[in-house]
Design a protein that fits this description.
The complex is a heterodimer of chains A (296) and B (189). With 296 residues, chain A is an alpha/beta fold. Chain A has 13 helices and 9 strands. The longest helix of chain A has 18 residues. Classes of the chains: A alpha/beta (296), B alpha/beta (189).
Chain lengths: 296, 189
């Protein structure tokens, strides 16, 4: 048989392609992971505390205990992702050794390095990173991220930041697409983004890797809103297991992500889901309490 | 000729692009009603448990089985292969059960074991195709008229029975349109 090449760029981006149109759910134990899988999640994100609790309890938020990750891996057959702190390449090495399927270099955890993100090209396991705008997305892709998610404001139960970030990314891409070629280098400079990637967006109008949404989804309507704004899949953090009745809400968010453009289906599946997680007015938060400003 | 790509979840966009490159009218399909209007359907890669649940919730599984009975061609990649099997090792997940085979999920390992390789498929000519396997399944047993077109280490990864075609790998992630063209021939037979 011919030579086998493992962990190529194509297999890394390929897994993200397979997750499109799906919901990735934050879980903190095996039981939650099973509820997520049963609801139809395409993957779970293993972590010690959901963002809402990290926000409430404070302190340094780190990579989850490998024991929790192992238990979650055993509990489900869908891909298992886990979070490493921004710049903490040893947490990432540990997660790779544990055999997780994707690493989220995440602003939800307390950053380990305020200057540098992880050099993600050095890893066999693929990475997803957050962004607030196109420049940030392209810097992360330049470092080797095989999937991008807009950050939103994790643990807020408020979709406003997710909307802001998704609109920032997609409108900037439309602007670049309409440019003359001789404008692209200045744009790359202003965005602080790799020139080659700006040229690629000029040609295709799309990010070179899948573009998902995160941070603030609490209802099926929130998920559908992000999909209509151009997200290719949705991460849900605190929104499920901080609600009154997680299982039906999880299922409804899965169905809403598939039928995001059918209001009559969305109306039906939004009925009687009980109380959503309590939300925060992001404008009342102080700069130090914002998670999305972590990383650059 | 009307071809659909099941767009409940997964890499359906890649399949739609592939079909467009072959000059075929292809549509994303999310309801049973849309399935009933098709001559051929592709079930993409994705999470087989998720796609299986969504098919059942929206009554799409029955529509597919009914249409296949009436001669619709069907091609499944990866998750699609799993969903077409009647036997899935260690799993009671929803399925279509259209092919008499046993399939093993995540058979090559987790994501870090995902790989690509050149593979020769006699039906597609002498040049190998680039086969991309992502958390891929393989077939552990074929029965009742299911033909193996390609294997890896003796495990079938491309199989066919009449107008039903299934691969453990993802031609839609490459530029090579030959396997999709082969499927379109099946649609027309």
């Amino acid at each position: 048989m011919s030579e086998i090449e493992k962990s190529t760029w194509r297999t890394k981006v390929g897994l993200a392609e397979m997750l499109k149109g799906g919901v990735i759910m934050d879980v903190t134990n095996a039981e939650q992971a099973r509820i997520a899988e049963e609801a139809g999640a395409v993957a779970v994100m293993a972590l010690e505390r959901v963002p809402a609790d990290i926000r409430k309890e404070g302190g340094v938020a780190r990579m989850a205990d490998p024991l929790i990750i192992e238990e979650i891996k055993k509990a489900v057959t869908i891909p298992v992702m886990a979070k490493a702190r921004i710049g903490h390449f040893v947490e990432a090495q540990i997660l790779e050794a544990l055999g997780v399927d994707y690493i989220d270099e995440s602003e939800v955890l307390t950053p380990a390095d305020e200057m540098y993100h992880i050099d993600k090209h050095q890893f066999k396991v693929p990475f997803v990173c957050g962004c607030r705008d196109l420049g940030e997305a392209l810097r992360r892709i330049g470092e080797g991220a095989a999937m991008i998610r807009t950050k939103g404001e994790a643990g807020s139960g408020n979709i406003v930041e997710a909307v802001r970030h998704m609109r920032a990314v997609t409108s900037e891409m439309r602007r670049i697409q309409g440019m003359r070629e001789d404008e692209l280098m200045a744009t790359a400079k202003n965005l602080g983004a790799p020139y080659d990637l700006v040229v690629e967006i000029h040609k295709t109008g799309k990010l070179p890797v899948p573009n998902f949404s995160a941070g603030g989804v609490a209802t099926p309507a929130d998920a559908a809103l992000m999909m209509q704004l151009g997200a290719e899949a949705v991460f849900v953090g605190s929104g499920i297991f901080k609600s009154d009745d997680p299982a039906p809400r999880a299922k409804a968010i899965v169905d809403a992500t598939t039928h995001y453009d059918k209001p009559e289906v969305l109306a039906e599946l939004s009925k009687g889901l009980g109380k959503a997680m309590e939300g925060l007015d992001v404008r009342q938060l102080e700069e130090k309490d914002l998670l999305s400003v972590r990383g650059w | 000729m009307r071809i659909g790509v099941l767009a409940l979840q997964g890499d359906y966009d890649k399949h739609l692009q592939m079909l467009k490159r072959l000059g075929v009218e292809a549509v994303p399909v999310r309801t049973a009603e849309e399935v009933r209007q098709l001559d051929g359907l592709i079930i993409p890669g994705g999470e087989s448990t998720t796609i299986g649940k969504l098919m059942r919730r929206f009554g799409i599984d029955e529509a597919i089985i009914e249409k296949v009975d009436q001669g619709m061609a069907l091609y499944g990649t990866c998750a699609g292969l799993i969903l077409m099997a009647n036997d899935i090792e260690d799993s009671d997940q929803g399925r279509l059960g259209l092919l008499d085979i046993t399939v093993r999920r995540n058979a090559f390992g987790r994501q870090i074991d995902s790989f690509e390789t050149d593979m020769t498929v006699p039906e597609l000519g002498p040049d190998p195709i680039r086969a991309v396997f992502i958390r891929a399944p393989f077939v552990t047993e074929v029965r009742n008229g299911v033909k193996t077109l390609a294997s890896i280490n003796g495990q079938p990864v491309l199989i066919q029975r009449d107008k039903l075609l299934a691969s453990a790998f993802h031609p839609e992630l490459t530029e090579d349109t030959r396997l999709h063209a082969y499927f379109l021939e099946l649609v027309q037979t």
